[in-house]
Amino acid sequence: MKIRIGTFGSRIAIRAAKSVALGIVKQFPDIETEIMHIDGTREAEFIERPAERIQGGNIYTDLMEQALLKGEIDIAVQSAKHLPLTLTAGTCVTTVLERGSPRDVLVTKRGAAIPENPKIGTNSLRRTAGMKKLNPGITVAAIEGNVDVRLRQLYDGDYDAIILSEDGVRRSGVVVDARFDFATISWQTIVPSACQGIIAVQSREGEFPHILGAINDEDTYRCFETERRAAELLYSDEMGAAGAYAYISNGIITLTVTKDQNKIITDSAPVTLRFSLAEQLAAMA
Question: Would you identify the CATH topology of the domain 104-185?
Fold first, then answer.
């Protein structure tokens, strides 16, 4: 039996797909896996552009879902924070990997003097709102390209700092680049996007339940569900500055939500009440 795993061609995406493949083979040594790059030329053009739209989703998730429904791949490895809140009919996410870091990271050129009111590169309204809260005098400028392109722009002096996801920085391997300093931003300071740091496995409904169930991280999946429920209620006309982050300890889930990165609400409940907790906090945000 072979399972074809869909991914894009970036280093981050390929590493995530390899993690899924290794998980499957570890549990089921007789299963063969094949990693397939989806529409690589378009991916090279669009990778990491600010393509998010209302209620989530972007060009990448669209292409992946199309490949899944056409039968070109058997499962799709997706960044969970980019999944649309309403998945395409006939598809589902029943499996996620153990969560990486949910936090953002501020990247600066090593040894460079940072001005009092720096120019920061980001396309995220959420990150912009969080940084403006910390320093109202910053200048925010749009930035495009993959991680390597953005780091090159930072090194060339186009920005004083840029903001990336810590999980993406780790997965891409650039965290060891001695040209830069990477300062992690606490999730209590800038609340992450819902499901940031989570790798999701999207499949056609009813397919491979036993196989995918064997590689699912249950606590991460419960957080995934909870944050998506909060996001459904927090995101309105735009994804904007909203954020949601949950973690589980000893059967208790703690959820933090915000609509604007200024009013931040946190509370806890038994995991069995996670959806009620999400609904309660989203109503208070």
Answer: D-Maltodextrin-Binding Protein; domain 2 (3.40.190)
- Strand-pair category, 139-141 with 161-165: unpaired
Q: Are 264 and 81 in contact (CB under 8 A)?
A: no
Dist CA 9 CA 205 (whole Å): 25
Look at residue 41 and tell me whether its pLDDT is greater than 80: no
Cα angle vertex 182, ends 81, 11, to 5°? 50
At CA 27, angle to CA 26 and CA 29, rounded to 5? 65
What is the distance between the alpha carbons of residues 272 and 81, in angstroms, rounded to a whole number? 23
3-state secondary structure of 149: helix
| Domain 2-100+194-284 CATH superfamily | Periplasmic binding protein-like II (3.40.190.10)
At 43 the pLDDT is: 39
Tell me the residue length of the chain. 285
Averaged pLDDT, 214-228: 98
What is residue 62's predicted lDDT score, i.e. its pLDDT? 83
Average pLDDT, rounded, for the chain:
90
For residue range 136-160, what is the model confidence (pLDDT) as tens digits?
999 999 998 889 999 999 999 999 9
β-bridge pairing 32-37 and 2-7? parallel
DSSP β-ladder status, 161-165 and 119-121: parallel
Distances (CA, A) of 69 to 55, 77, 96, 189: 21, 14, 20, 40
